[in-house]
């Protein structure tokens, strides 16, 4: 069977066209570029049958008829036929020898107008050429222009509402001596001009159409730097302004006015004098790629919308203080560590690599009572909207280390992130046009280290190592233990934030210190789930309660301990009464003792909970209770004139008689 000829293929395809589609196909054939061969319109109108039309095609474009048909079919709305034609051309053809063996009858059936170049032996090249054109047509657009409006947010298509918005993009139409504004109807770009009424004029299917429902292109505040760049035969400059979501139709112009440049058709189409006209050279509207510097200023923060998050605690460093002597010693250690504060101003716009951004802002700083606005200039990291500051901290510690002991310190830190919205003025400086400004909205994100703390990491399995004097300290009776130590260095936080910080970091048995402005501290023991066990108010009558309230106004201590009767209670930390200006912290480092096992601490807690005891400032106070639970010895370091870190045997005895009643009775009998 003979291979199909180009004429056979074209007849088969074009016979599928409806009457109106065939009419439009002929019109587009007649509107070919004047510089190219063209079928006279009279001959096209005289070709009433498909075979006559195909003969005209083959005679006028002997080597290009298939490619031309592939190009025109989508323009009359028959992409399905274009795909079908491509599929036919893609099918394997007979080899050359079989074609050479075609019968004389078959050869006679080939139209006489078909040149030798189009005979079967040479049709492979024609098929490949046409198929290449088809593949180029159906190939997805490799360029993605969808980013342009998200990257350049001041450039917008806005619906026509009866009047022109400020900064609508326009040109001066030299041919018509008027100003035309960029407009579009669906995916067809055209123009609006006041002198012709409230219409967008646009090209479509060989006609100049108009519509009262359209959109205009607005460059809000004139902020984006736009430029018209030359193109021809379907070329698309970088940063071209698209009309459709596919990114293959663009805003373009020439000296006759505004229209659409269709990349697949390789031409500019204009609405002019009632017709759709096309041109192969044009200018495309683009966003300029001229370098610039930018500045963010006049920031206003909505601090009522602040959100706060805290990252997991990280181990930053470790340090060891060792005492190999057989007596307690006090050692000094200077700790140096950095912290980083990072700032991000997210304005939801991409930043070009190498872009220099300066930010002048009064940033919120939080103290105990107020929000302070601190003005400062920031130079962002190149190509970003972020900056960072490094703060170096130095902490001098004086720690008493028990005999044959070591203190293993672990530096822990947890970053906190604050985030809240802002409005600001964004300005860009171009060398060609100077400064352009616009209002922007964004979110300010600040990440910082709210505090560090050193916590003990006990290691009771080891004993003191030999020293240089050759004496083996492992023979000493005292084990080589880990003394408890913790210290907090924190950015100023209000009391509520301090409570959250403590409850998120404390572990069972930690000593909780409520430090009052007068220099006195109230103490308790952390009992998980945000609770503390401490000396609190015992049950009392109305008269005593009124007296306590009065004394609190005169002498603003904890208030729970003024009248002597106390009860050991379990209470949420946030509900503990404290005077204004108090601070709360985890403090395990002030008593030079090794913490007991968790089992022993829980046993003491269970026995003492809900016990009513007389409060005695010098011999039975809140610090005595807290240290007894943690260490098994009652210690208080805030009594004037008393030595530090010494056990109060009276307080220890009171607690021991409750916790270990049988043991204390046996001791008394002995």
UniProtKB/TrEMBL annotation:
Q: Name one GO biological process term.
A: regulation of apoptotic process
Domain called DED: residue spans = 5-87
InterPro entries of this UniProt entry?
DAPIN (IPR004020), DEATH-like_dom_sf (IPR011029), DED_dom (IPR001875), DM9_repeat (IPR006616), LRAT_dom (IPR007053)
Question: Pyrin domain location, by residue?
Answer: 1-91
Enumerate the PROSITE patterns for this protein. DAPIN (PS50824), DED (PS50168), LRAT (PS51934)
* Positions of the LRAT domain: 512-638
Q: What residue spans carry the region label Disordered?
A: 87-115
SMART domains (alphabetical)? DM9, PYRIN
Q: Where is the composition biased (Polar residues)?
A: 91-115
Name under which the protein is recorded: LRAT domain-containing protein
- This protein's species is Albula goreensis
């Amino acid at each position: 069977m003979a291979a199909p000829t180009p004429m056979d293929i074209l007849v088969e395809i074009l016979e599928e066209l409806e009457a109106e589609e065939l009419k439009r196909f002929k019109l587009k054939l007649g509107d070919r570029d004047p510089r190219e061969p063209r079928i006279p319109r009279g001959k096209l109108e005289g070709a009433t049958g498909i075979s006559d039309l195909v003969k005209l095609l083959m005679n006028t474009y002997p080597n290009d008829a298939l490619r031309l048909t592939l190009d025109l079919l989508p323009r009359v709305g028959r992409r399905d036929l274009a795909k079908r034609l491509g599929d036919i051309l893609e099918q394997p053809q007979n080899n050359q020898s079989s074609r050479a063996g075609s019968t004389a009858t078959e050869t006679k059936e080939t139209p006489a107008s078909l040149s030798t170049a189009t005979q079967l032996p040479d049709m492979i090249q024609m098929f490949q050429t046409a198929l290449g054109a088809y593949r180029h047509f159906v190939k997805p657009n490799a360029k993605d222009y969808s980013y342009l409006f998200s990257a350049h947010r001041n450039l917008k298509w806005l619906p026509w509402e009866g009047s022109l918005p400020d900064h609508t993009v326009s040109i001066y139409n030299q041919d018509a001596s008027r100003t035309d504004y960029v407009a579009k109807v669906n995916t067809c770009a055209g123009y609006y001009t006041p002198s012709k009424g409230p219409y967008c004029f646009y090209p479509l299917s060989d006609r100049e159409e108009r519509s009262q429902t359209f959109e205009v292109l607005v460059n809000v505040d004139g902020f984006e730097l736009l430029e018209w760049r030359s193109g021809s035969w379907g070329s698309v400059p970088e940063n071209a302004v698209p009309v459709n979501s596919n990114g293959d139709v663009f805003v373009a112009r020439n000296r006759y006015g505004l229209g659409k440049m269709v990349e697949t058709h390789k031409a500019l189409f204009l609405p002019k004098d009632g017709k759709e006209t096309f041109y192969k050279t044009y200018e495309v509207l683009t966003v300029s790629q001229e370098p610039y510097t930018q500045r963010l200023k006049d920031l206003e923060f909505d601090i009522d919308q602040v959100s706060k998050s805290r990252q997991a605690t990280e181990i930053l460093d470790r340090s060891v203080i060792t005492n190999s002597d057989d007596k307690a010693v006090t050692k000094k250690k200077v700790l140096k560590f950095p912290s980083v504060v990072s700032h991000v101003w997210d304005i939801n716009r991409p930043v070009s690599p190498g872009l220099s951004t300066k930010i002048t802002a009064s940033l919120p700083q939080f103290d105990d009572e107020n929000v302070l606005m601190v003005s400062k200039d920031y130079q962002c990291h190149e190509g970003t909207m972020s900056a960072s500051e490094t703060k170096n901290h130095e902490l001098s510690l004086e720690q008493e280390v028990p005999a044959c002991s070591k203190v293993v310190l672990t530096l822990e830190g947890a970053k906190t992130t604050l985030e809240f919205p802002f409005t600001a003025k964004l300005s860009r400086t171009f060398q060609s046009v100077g400064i352009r400004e616009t209002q922007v909205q964004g979110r300010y994100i600040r990440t910082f280290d709210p505090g560090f703390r050193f916590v003990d990491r006990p290691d009771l399995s080891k004993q003191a190592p030999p020293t240089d004097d050759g004496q083996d300290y492992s023979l000493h009776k005292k084990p080589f233990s880990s003394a408890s130590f913790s210290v907090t260095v924190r950015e100023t936080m209000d009391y509520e934030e301090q409570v959250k910080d403590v409850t998120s970091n404390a572990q069972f048995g930690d000593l909780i210190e409520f430090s009052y402005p007068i220099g006195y501290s109230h103490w308790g023991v952390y009992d998980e789930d945000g609770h503390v066990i401490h000396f609190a108010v015992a049950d009392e009558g109305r008269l005593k309660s009124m007296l306590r309230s009065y004394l609190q106004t005169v002498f603003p201590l904890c208030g729970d301990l003024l009248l002597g009767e106390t009860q050991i209670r379990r209470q949420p930390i946030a509900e503990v009464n404290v005077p204004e200006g108090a601070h709360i912290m985890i403090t395990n480092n002030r008593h030079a003792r090794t913490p007991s096992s968790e089992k022993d601490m829980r046993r003491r807690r269970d026995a003492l909970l809900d016990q009513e005891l007389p409060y005695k400032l010098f011999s039975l106070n809140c610090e005595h209770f807290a240290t007894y639970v943690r260490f098994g010895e009652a210690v208080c370091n805030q009594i004037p004139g008393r030595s530090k870190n010494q056990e109060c045997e009276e307080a220890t005895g009171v607690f021991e008689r409750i916790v270990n009643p049988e043991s204390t009775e046996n001791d008394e009998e002995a």
